[in-house]
Amino acid sequence: MNRLSVEDQRKLSALCEKIEKNTQNFLGYPVSKDFDYSELVELLKYPVNNLGDPFAECTYAVDSREMEREVLEFFAEIFRAPKNDWWGYVTNGGSEGNMYGLYMARELHPKGMVYYSAATHYSVHKNLHLLNMPNIVIRTQKNGEIDYEDLSNTIRMNRHMPVIIMANIGTTMTEAKDDINKIKAILNDAAIQNYYIHCDGALSGSISPFLEPRPAFDFADGADSIAISGHKFIGSPTPSGVLLVKKSHRDRIARSVAYIGSLDTTITGSRNGHSPIFLWYAIKTLGYEGLKKRVEHSLNIAAYAEERLKSIGIEAWRNHNAITVVFPQPHEMVRKKWQLASEKGLSHIICMPNVTEAQIDELIADIMKYSEETILL
Ligand SMILES: *Cc1c(COP(=O)(O)O)cnc(C)c1O
């Protein structure tokens, strides 16, 4: 390989600088940045690929399947998956895991109707379109949680069809969690026999096992599959995710492929072999207790941010045990500096484990500075 030209070298340095700078002021998206995977740098020398099923043999052996299986076991345990009846794989992100959940539901209930709340992540709509599944949007309550009454009424109107629920375990905007127990009670009352519940736990799936009271979201609560993002709460230099599903479900779609000497059970063929190693490293170095501490830190910072915002007269609020603080969208300059998303006049900050009180103080100072300027104008 040739070396980079001087000009391209400069471009690359500028990119590194930009990324480093933009990583500093980052409060608006649910992505952790407090990781150090430098011990894994050596692995960038190899084309690590977990082609095929993580639990099946494969002829391609430059892989990290062993670590991947340990990652899956860890999540199976904290998501209370039934012993010997779970399966999963490390995905490219939460969206792929959600797509898998819907795909599984469609294979089991080809005539099913999908129900999901208006606060559901935008990618779900696209996946339903790709999978060609009929679906109905359910109203949300003010806090972003699904409106159980609307869900109940809508299901009753279509009670001849199997029910497929796409539940939110932490919505994108307000981190609201749909309650699986309440949803199951609705299905029970309507005497629905055939149903499937998928939980989109992109952000809060990996937080919820550490919360008290524990939200109703996992396999013991009645989920058939759960998807999370690996680069959100855990943190990873490349996007990743974890998908877990009851094994008895996935056995109905597994298909053997001679070319790779494995089972074709995953959505993509080649799969990132590096991302399971990042997740494995995080789980091994932090452990259950370390992850719990990060959750506690995030909750403390969120409480601090909510209080500070209220103290300067801003109507901030958050859902119970959420690390997302919602408030009326601030001045454009503040949104730009802190990379704050906004929707329908609302912004939020997400107090990921790397967020500090000092950053919240700086944000508060910025909000005050720009609201004064607005008043002077
Ligand atoms: C981020 C997110 C997703 C999508 O996850 P990716 O990892 O970005 O693919 C889906 N649902 C919710 C609620 C999210 O927050």
Please compute the radius of gyration using only Cα atoms: 22 Å
Give unreliable regions as ranges: none
Which CATH architecture of the largest domain is right?
3-Layer(aba) Sandwich
Largest sheet at a glance?
7 strands, mixed
User: SS-based structural class?
Assistant: alpha/beta
Task: Provide the domain count.
Answer: 2
Give the tally of β-strands: 12
CATH class of the largest domain: Alpha Beta
Helical proportion? Answer: 25-40%
Distance between the termini: 58 Å
The averaged pLDDT comes out at 94
Q: Which H/E pattern describes the elements?
A: HHEHEHEHEHEEEHEEHEHEEH
Number of helices, counting only DSSP H or I runs of 4 residues or more: 10
Organism: Solitalea agri
Cofactor: pyridoxal 5'-phosphate
GO biological process, one term: carboxylic acid metabolic process
Protein name: Histidine decarboxylase
Describe this structure in words.
The chain has ten helices and twelve strands. The chain is 38% helix and 14% strand. The model has no long low-confidence stretch (mean pLDDT 94). Helix 3 (94-108) runs parallel beside helix 4 (122-131), helix 5 (148-157) packs parallel to helix 6 (180-189) and helix 8 packs across helix 10 (357-376). It folds into two domains: 6-30 and 296-376, Aspartate Aminotransferase, domain 1 (Alpha-Beta Complex), CATH 3.90.1150; 41-283, Aspartate Aminotransferase, domain 2 (3-Layer(aba) Sandwich), CATH 3.40.640.10. Strands 1-7-6-5-4-2-3 form a seven-stranded mixed beta sheet, with helices on both faces. It has a three-stranded antiparallel beta sheet with strand order 10-12-11, with helices on one face. The chain has a two-stranded antiparallel sheet with strand order 8-9. The chain is globular and about 60 Å long. The chain is of the alpha/beta class and 377 residues long. The protein has helices spanning 6-24, 65-78, 94-108, 122-131, 148-157, 180-189, 247-250, 275-311, 332-337, 357-376; strands at 86-91, 113-117, 135-138, 163-168, 195-200, 225-229, 241-246, 256-257, 262-263, 324-328, 342-343, 346-350. Its cofactor is pyridoxal 5'-phosphate. This is Histidine decarboxylase.
